[in-house]
From TrEMBL:
UniProt source species: Olea europaea
Protein name as catalogued: acetate--CoA ligase
Highest classification ranks of the organism: Eukaryota, Viridiplantae, Streptophyta, Embryophyta, Tracheophyta
Family under the similarity heading: Belongs to the ATP-dependent AMP-binding enzyme family.
Pathway the protein acts in: Phytoalexin biosynthesis; 3,4',5-trihydroxystilbene biosynthesis; 3,4',5-trihydroxystilbene from trans-4-coumarate: step 1/2
CDD domains the UniProt entry points to: ACS
């Protein structure tokens, strides 16, 4: 504990600069700084004065409390929610040390609550019934809708009643495969209301990926829609679901019901295929049910949702989150990291198919009675000004997005931004990958007119909520740094041996103790949970990320250190892409690595060896890429296929990815020692074929 406090206490020794003009301006004027780390960007005095956490000292006091007395700190916050029955003692129990037995994390056990009740009924009772809960903006400008908290509750209750009627019970899984319609958060909340466990599958995943998830969690019902427009394209989601359901049925698991929302905005003159007895139109049945529905009270440790994510081995992992701790954690992180106030209008561009959409489109904001913008479309349609058009239209004050979007809009030119007022903006946010300082500056100076702090939030599907994040107004920022830990979070940087390193350093990012929003297991595979996250560095949760800490105690995330790549903020396991590639009949072997990509952060670079006698061709390249799109989804399509006569392997047959990464990024003078390879000549052959 004392080390921890020492790390954050460095904050108090920073020059006090409220209102001071940032060194950032020096950069814009072309003067160079000694290093990025020295660039401090101060919040204005006016901003800090109105913030929940107005100073480093206030943060230090709260942080200290949260570390020294986690039970007391989190109980006080949890008491602001509705509990049918208060939790028992101890408030939390944990074992993060694999050497001491099974890994276990529990918070508020014995407490009975319901997160849907806390998002809706509780806020309505406190006078927010007529407040807008959701603004929906369709793909086409001018197409929109909205729901007040009262109306949202009614919609949720109707669907909850329908689900109960078809036999969905507490603990049953429900798979949701929907685009960003209001029906997506409605479906999540309806499941939560009746204690069902939702598993949202991002609607960009292929039929095969969807089938794999369905077969793993065995839902009674799958909720989808007929089609969706994305930009100028139409995607027939129901066809994808049909294929997935057929695949799953062939493998022995048949879903009882496929509830299909008729998404009018996407209606074309194409008839949706229908399987009588299994398929039902949402609009035909759900609207007939009563608009009130009793709540199923669940234990704080009962599961709330499953969300599949990629790991370093082939099969996606079902990350399981429970109810009570997740509720308290998402609500609290949302409030502080975005300095949320009841008058804010909040827009997060993430899709509910990812964790960001769970914690910071649906649960975190609604628990705070916030008004949330849900956007169905694409950020560059009809043109690259769409985001700022939406910001002005709804008077968005908090805008949360991913670095990849910032970089792609940055390339389109400033006029798309400056054409719009953006005066409503107060806070900007970034998530999904490290934000490079130049994108940070563009976002800060141009989009936010040098007035809006940026919350660069580091966290993961597994962590449930923010772990390392700025608190706007509390301390100066450094472009590209996620800064300091959230309350209750004890990040540590360890070396290869798992020894904590102090002061200025870099190494592997771990967490030392549990926090309420932590995931509790991998669905159906607690052992994999323990080996993946708790065995590399016994005693700690290992994040899979590298991190350094500078002399002022700021944290700088440096990316994944395992075989996971991060493409446009989407997490992809190299093994998943490899297994898709080798399923192609003409592919003998594949090795996939990440390479730097100007817009996506990382791109997918695949080395492929072909079956004996098969020649390379452009058609084959296309067909390999198509195989990956079909098996995983378009977002996982390789950017580059590098034909390989052979792969660099050790004598024991292990592929040396270190060498492949260097070849992929053309750092040919940094190949290192290749003498341990079974056949060192493959390296030269690969280099010769690099740009063919
Ligand atoms: O590498 C880190 C990166 O995204 C990974 C988690 O991916 P996922 O579970 O899909 O969740 C994404 C949204 C929370 C992390 O291991 N990452 C996420 N946020 C940041 C980040 N890297 C640097 N800075 C961030 N702000």
């Amino acid at each position: 504990t004392s080390n921890h406090l020492r790390h954050v206490e460095s904050l108090a020794t920073l020059p006090s600069g409220a209102g001071r003009i940032s060194k950032l301006n020096a950069v814009i004027l072309g003067e160079s700084l000694a290093s990025e780390e020295d660039d401090l960007v101060f919040p204005s005095g006016d901003f800090s004065r109105q913030a929940h956490v107005p100073s480093p000292q206030k943060y230090l006091d709260m942080y200290k409390m949260s570390i020294e007395d986690p039970a007391g700190f989190w109980s006080d916050i949890a008491s602001q929610f509705y509990w049918k029955q208060r939790w028992g003692q101890p408030v939390y129990s944990e074992n993060l040390d694999i050497r001491k037995g099974r890994i276990k994390i529990e918070w508020f056990k014995g407490g009975m609550t319901n997160i849907c009740y806390n998002c809706l009924d509780r806020n309505i009772e406190s006078g927010n019934g007529e407040k807008t809960a959701l603004f929906w903006e369709g793909n086409e400008p001018g197409e929109d809708g909205n729901l007040t908290y009262n109306q949202l509750l009614q919609r949720v209750c109707q669907l909850a009643n329908y689900l109960k009627h078809i036999g969905v019970k507490k603990g049953d899984a429900v798979v949701i495969y929907l685009p960003m319609l209001m029906e997506l958060p409605i479906a999540m909340l309806a499941c939560a209301r009746i204690g069902a466990v939702h598993s949202v599958v991002f609607a960009g995943f292929s039929a095969e990926s969807l089938a794999q998830r369905i077969m793993d969690c065995k839902p009674k019902v799958v909720i989808t829609c007929n089609a969706v427009r994305r930009g100028s394209k139409i995607i027939y989601l129901k066809d994808i679901v049909d294929a997935a359901l057929a695949d799953s049925a062939q493998n022995g698991f048949a879903v009882d019901v496929c509830l299909t929302y008729e998404n009018c905005s996407a209606l074309e003159k194409v008839k949706t295929k229908w399987q009588e007895g299994r398929d039902t139109w949402w609009q035909d049945v759900v609207t007939k049910y009563p608009t009130t529905c009793d709540v199923e009270w669940v234990d704080a440790e009962d599961p709330l949702f499953l969300l599949y994510t990629s790991g370093s081995t082939g099969k996606p992992k079902g990350v399981l989150h429970t109810t009570g701790g997740y509720m308290v954690y998402t609500a609290t992180t949302f409030k502080y990291a975005f300095d949320y106030k009841p008058s804010d209008i909040y827009w997060c561009t993430a899709d509910c198919g990812w964790i960001t959409g769970h914690s910071y489109v649906t649960y975190g904001p609604l628990l705070n009675a916030a008004t949330v913008v849900v956007f169905e479309g694409a950020p560059n349609y009809p043109d690259s000004g769409r985001c700022w058009d939406i910001v002005d239209k709804y008077k968005v004050s908090i805008f949360y997005t991913a670095p990849t979007l910032v970089r792609s809009l940055m390339r389109e030119g400033d006029e798309y931004v400056t054409r719009y007022s953006r005066k409503s903006l107060r806070i900007l946010g970034s998530v999904g990958e490290p934000i490079n300082p130049s994108a940070w500056r563009w976002f800060y100076n141009l989009v936010g007119d040098s007035r809006c702090p940026i919350s660069d939030t580091w966290w993961q599907t597994e962590t449930g909520g923010f772990m390392i994040t700025p608190l706007p107004g509390a301390w100066p920022q450094k472009p590209g740094s996620a800064t300091f830990p959230f309350f209750g979070v004890q990040p540590v940087i360890v070396d290869e041996k798992g020894v904590e390193i102090e002061g200025e350093c870099s190494g592997y990012l771990c967490v030392k103790s549990s926090w309420p929003g932590a995931f509790r297991t991998l669905y159906g595979d607690h052992e994999r949970y323990e080996t993946t996250y708790f065995s590399a560095f016994p005693g700690y949760y290992f994040s899979g990320d590298g991190c350094s800490r500078d002399k002022d105690g700021y944290h700088w995330l440096t990316g994944r250190v395992d075989d996971v790549i991060n493409v446009s903020g989407h997490r992809i396991g190299t093994a998943e892409v490899e297994s898709a590639l080798v399923s192609h009949p003409q592919c003998a072997e594949a090795a996939v690595v990440g390479v730097e990509h100007e817009v996506k952060g990382q791109g997918i670079y695949a080395f492929v060896t072909l079956v004996e006698g098969v020649p390379y061709s452009e058609d084959l390249r296309k067909s390999l890429v198509l195989t990956v799109r079909n098996q995983i989804g378009a977002f996982a399509a390789p950017d580059k296929i590098h034909w390989a006569p052979g792969l660099p392997k050790t004598r024991s047959g292990k592929i040396m990815r270190r060498i492949l990464r260097k070849i992929a990024s053309r750092q040919l003078d940094e190949l290192g020692d290749t003498s341990t390879l079974a056949d060192p000549s493959v390296v030269d052959q690969l280099i010769a074929l690099a740009d063919s």
